Amino acid sequence: MALALTTILAGCSSSTEDEPTSLSPEEGTSGPEETTTPDEETTTPAEETSEPETTEPAEDKTDEPTDEATDEDSGPAFTLDATQSSNFPNLLGQFLATSARVGGHDTYDRVVIEYDGTEGELNWSANYEDAPIQDGSGFEVDMAGEEFLTIWVSGVRYPTEEEMTDAEFPITGLDQSSIIEDVVVDGPFEGMHTIFIGTDAQHPYRVQVFDNPTRIVVDIEK
After folding, report:
1. How many CB atoms lie within 10 A of CB 163?
2. Confidence at residue 208, expressed as pLDDT on a 0 to 100 scale
3. Running DSSP on this structure, what letter comes out for residue 212?
4. What are residue 126's phi and psi, to 5 degrees?
5. What is the DSSP letter of 64?
6. pLDDT of 70-109, one tens digit each?
7. What's the predicted TM-score (pTM) here?
């Protein structure tokens, strides 16, 4: 009987040790939690989020007028005689002078008059005059200079009411010239206007017309 009791106790002890132990919920789910969010879903490729590099285009400066740097041999010959364009005085243009500038060069000085407008064409006639006489009124223009290169320009229009101003016509760069003493750009009169260039003496000159923007370029040889 003692032997039977010992056998029963031994059987109970072995059955308790052999029972499998269950895992806690935390231990059983720890694996999947670490792999639910792939690394590639939380990162964005640099090339998709970075903005393209931008630099200021240097070619913008090439749109500026290049008449100040044109070769003196690329245009017509310099002369002291009266000259004019082939279609002067064609009055069909619709241009309005807006500004003038003077530039100095090694062998000549340059006056550039810019115009607003694209319709028609500018034509001109030029000559040295004893005095700068205003077209229409016949009055002498008060300006500096010993000789006066006068350019009559056809193909211009009157300013609109919004364009009219009492401000003086803008002229820059007079201090860059050694021979040009003054420049006066007169207003339009019956489809024409006059440009007066006061110089220290009569110098050979040439007149050209350029586009984009429309401008009359007067070179005066030193």
Report:
1. 11
2. 97
3. T
4. -135, 145
5. S
6. 544 578 999 999 999 999 999 989 999 999 999 999 999 9
7. 0.68
